[in-house]
Amino acid sequence: MRKQHRERQTDMKTKSSRNKTIDFPLEEAAPYLDRCVRGDVGPFGELRDKTILGDAFEVLERLPDRSVDLVIADPYYNLSKSFHGNASRKQDFGQYAAYTERWVGKVARKLKPDGSIYVCCDWKSSGAVEQVLQRHFIVRNRITWQREKGRGAGANWKNAMEDIWFATCSETYTFNLDAVKIRRRVHAPYRLGGKPRDWEQTQQGRYRDTCPSNFWDDISVPYWSMAENTAHPTQKPEKLIAKLILASSRAGDIVLDPFLGSGTTSVVARKLGRSYIGIEQNPLYCAWAEYRLEKALGDTTIQGYTDGRFWERNSCAEQLRIKKEGARPAPAGKPAKPRPKDEDNE
Question: Which of 163, 175, 187, 240 is the most exposed place for a label (fewest CB within 10 A)?
Answer without folding.
Answer: 187
